[in-house]
Every structure is written in C-alpha cells, then in structure tokens.
Design brief:
CATH class: Alpha Beta
Strand content: 15-25%
CATH architecture: Alpha-Beta Barrel
Largest sheet: 8 strands, parallel, barrel
CATH topology: TIM Barrel
Order of helices and strands: HEHEHEHEHEHEHEHHHEEHHEH
Structural class: alpha/beta
Shape: globular
Length: 288
C-alpha cells in the first residue's frame, strides 16, 4: 500500500483510497480462483483464523508472492506457540522478503502458547531479525465485544509505543466500519490522546447480506461480526439488491481523511474478489 502524500481535494482523496485498496483473502478452497481477479499491483492481506491456523496463512502468502503480488500475512498472537515459533515467523518474513505483516490477537478461545494478546507477542517479535519495513496492528472504533474499551485503548497505545521504541514504522487497520460518525468520533479521540500511526479504514467489499453473516461468523473477524449482528437493522439499510456498496462509507470518510490520518483501505472481500474488483474499476472510472 502506497505511502504517497494524500491529495488535497476530496474526490482525489477518494480516488487514491480506492485505487490503492488492500484486498483481504481467506485461505479457503476457492482462493486460487479468486487470486486471478485481484488487480495487478495490488497488496493482498491474508487472514489467520483458528479454523485454518497459521500455516494456512503462510502457505497462501507464499503462493500470492509467487504470483507477483505484495502479500501481508496476519499473525495471530493466540495461535503462536512460544518464542521459538515467533522466531520462525520472523524467519518466514525475512526469507520471503516481506515488507509488512499485520498482527491480530485472534479469535481462538484459548491461546495455544504464552501470548494472550498482541502486546506480548510484539515485544518478542521486535527482538527478532524480521527485516520488515512496517508492522500493522488492529484498531476497534466500535469497541470489542469481549474486551473493555479502556483495555483496548491502552493496548493500542502500548503497541504504538513498542513500535516507536524499536524504530519500526506502523499502521493501524480497523475492524469493519459501518457507522461513519462513530468512526470519526473514535479517530478524533485517539488522535487527541496521542495516537499518531496512519489509519487504514476497514470496509466490506461487494457482498450480499447472507454471505456477510455466514462467512464472517465462521472466519476470523469475530468482534466485527458481533457488531454487525447487534446492529443488523441499521447496517442492512446500506445494502442494495446487488449487495453492499463500499462507496457509501468511503465517500464521506474521504472528506475527513487528511484531518484524521486515513492512509488506506482494508477491504474484507470474503473471497468475493471478482465483484469487488469490478466495483473498484467502476469507481475509478467514475472518479477520474
């Protein structure tokens, strides 16, 4: 994902965000066919869930790299066995010349090792020879269903502090966003509290309501899906008969992107890449 300067007009901002959107893929049986629809030059994020495990993430990351894309694997703290496992993950980053990874606590009910969350994992990971240029962390504008909001807030700032101490640039990518006003309030409050890392806005790709609920509940985005179910009446008003249109969130957020430090888009495709790529092409033509 580019770190080029943000344009000065809202339309240009929206176009840059859409053009440089990062596609999230899930290690499922249909993923090979979906990779073919990812636009050339795109950055691809690879999920990690208890259902599939870390090795599936690494395998798909290697496959995506072999096809010429930039790949950004998700490393789940709660699926990491021990410090030796951390070192093996760092070695994977180095041997595959990765530029970025994205760290998540993960939805595993119990950690398989000593890492209950990202802070402890990150502390050990930063002591390795990982060779990365940037490390991404999670952010929760709508809160986390299982963790107190104050704890989530402190962890966000603790992760930023660890990255700064190690001299490693970072970014924060958010859970799926549906409420523009809530997102803006959260971002403004975190900025006022001293959080300075660039933000990536998490949005669903083009997907119908049924698939959003069934796949999201099954694969790796538990906190976001709990929010979706709790607020389904409001959220589903954003859906058209042909599916969800990410532009309904991206357009208003583009107006505040410069002020709030929104650098990019993280698109939850649910492996519905063909439709999302078609939407991207249509939006870029419209915004040209």
């Amino acid at each position: 994902m580019s770190t080029s300067p943000m344009p000065t007009t809202t339309t240009a901002v929206q176009r840059q965000l859409v053009a440089e959107a990062r596609y999230e893929l899930i290690p499922l049986k249909n993923v090979d066919a979906q990779i073919a629809h990812v636009p050339a030059g795109s950055s691809v994020s690879v999920t990690c869930s208890p259902a599939k495990g870390l090795q599936a993430t690494l395998d798909l990351t290697a496959k995506i790299l072999d096809q010429g894309y930039e790949a950004v694997p998700h490393f789940s703290a709660r699926l990491t066995e021990d410090a030796a496992h951390v070192r093996r993950l760092a070695e994977f980053c180095r041997t595959h010349a990765l530029r970025e990874v994205f760290l998540v606590a993960g939805d595993a009910p119990e950690p398989v090792g000593p890492y209950d969350g990202v802070v402890a994992f990150l502390r050990d990971f930063l002591d390795t020879d990982h060779g990365l240029q940037r490390i991404g962390i999670t952010a929760y504008p709508d809160g986390h269903a299982l963790i107190d909001r104050d704890v989530v807030h402190r962890a966000l700032h603790d992760k930023q502090a660890l990255l700064a101490e190690a001299g490693v640039p970072g970014f924060a990518s958010t859970q799926m966003c549906f409420d523009v006003d809530q997102w803006k309030r959260w971002a403004a409050a975190e900025r006022a509290a001293g959080f300075t890392l660039p933000l990536h806005l998490g949005v669903p790709g083009v997907i119908d309501r049924a698939k959003l609920l069934t796949m999201g509940a099954r694969l790796g985005i538990g906190s976001s899906m709990r929010f979706v179910k709790k607020n389904s009446g409001t959220i589903f008003k954003l859906f058209s008969p042909t599916g969800y249109d990410p532009s309904k969130l991206i357009a208003p957020m583009s107006k505040v992107a410069r002020d709030l430090g929104i650098e990019g888009l993280h698109v939850f495709t649910f492996n519905n890449v063909e439709a999302t790529a078609a939407w991207q092409r249509k939006q870029l033509a419209k915004l040209s």
